[in-house]
Amino acid sequence: MFNPNDVAVFNGNIFGLPYTYSEAETVIIPVPWDVTTSYHKGTANGPKAVLEASPQLDFYNAFVKNAWEHKLFFEPINDYWVKKNQELNKLSADLIAKMESGIPFTAEDEANLNEINKASEELNQFVYEKAQAIFEDGKKPVLLGGDHSTPLGIIKAYSEKYEELSVLQIDAHADLRIAYEGFKYSHASIMHNVLSETDIEMLIQVGIRDICDDEIKYIEKEPRINTFFDWELKHQLYEGKTWDTLCSEIAVRLTDNVYISFDIDGLDPKLCPNTGTPVPGGFELEQINYLLLKIVDSGKKIVGFDLNEVSPDRFNPNNDWDANVGARALWMLSCFLKEQ
After folding, report:
1. What's the start-to-end Cα distance of the chain, in Å?
2. Of the candidates 315, 322, 305, 340, which has an alpha carbon nearest to the alpha carbon of residue 144?
């Protein structure tokens, strides 16, 4: 009896939808984790903020009929990981401060770094097993972070389920660093770890605009990576090339099965000013919506996704702008998944 035109009720589920786990087609795994964040902390609070902002969204989608019928369920936020994140953030903040000040690590610091790396590996395994269990129940898992280190486990599960899987990464950063700041599973290392620890066929990066020399060299030597740098896309737009043409050029590089890893900082930072590492440039949300439309129109199948790096305003808890945008990005991704 759910009426998508009524006032949404905050019932603990995403967008106020009435579906239970047993009814769900797609299950959202929230991961409250930002231990390795190297600039602004707060993305661990993203899942809760997006959940709380989501019921005020309207359900009409111009491209997906009755989008609200897609049965979404938001898994309860796991208190163990909330507490573990808070505990380890105290250690990681101290380690990062020492590194940035050029202070050598003590034996205790090395032990703390090892503890963080071990916990990150445990988190990856938790996400992997959770995603597998959801698949076994005949549903699709998707992930809401947290920082961008969080989806390694779910991408691994998808790479095992779908042959010739490509990952479409929407991001300001290439995330190809090796154990950035000593953290093996750093948010800045996620795509290096995906390439190293999964069997994905191709990584297509879109919007990259903040990158180091080593990552450029990695891209140049790794045949599985195709990177559409933000500056190249913008220059082509300035010279008269259409976004439609550019989206078609991106879509053709993808395999038939596409997994989307969406770091919210891929957008213009006016849309996500409190994200962990904002960078000038980027996209409007509607540009990403159009890109995904072109991918589907090209015959490719969007099979899963993660959304990461949404962070509430750490100075003004009453400002839910980032969460509002994050909720709409999540809705957009969910609508495309419904159609597949």
Report:
1. 25
2. 305
**Tally of CB atoms within 10 A around 291:** 23
Q: Is residue 2 part of a domain?
A: no
Helices 46-53 + 321-338 axis angle, to 10: 80
State how beta strands 301-308 and 140-145 pair: parallel
**8: in domain:** no
Give the tens place of pLDDT for each residue, 101-148. Answer: 999 999 999 999 999 999 999 999 999 999 999 999 999 999 999 999
- Domain tally, the chain: 1
| Order of all β-strands in the sheet with 257-263 | 72-74, 26-31, 140-145, 301-308, 257-263, 165-170, 202-208, 225-229
Q: Which residues is 72 bridged to in the sheet?
A: 26
List the domain range (segments joined by +) for residue 155. Answer: 14-338
- On whether the CB atoms of residues 3 and 48 are closer than 8 A, the answer is no
What CATH number does the domain containing 261 carry? Answer: 3.40.800.10
Q: Is the residue at 7 inside a domain?
A: no
Task: Say if pTM beats, i.e. exceeds, 0.85.
Answer: yes
Contacts of 78 (CB under 8 A, 6+ apart): 30, 32
- Residue 42 resides in a domain: yes
Asked if 168 contacts 295 with a C-beta cutoff of 8 angstroms, the reply is yes
In this predicted model, what pLDDT tens digit does every residue of 223-272 receive, in sequence order?
999 999 999 999 999 999 999 999 999 999 999 999 999 999 999 999 99
Residue with tokens 């009524």: 6
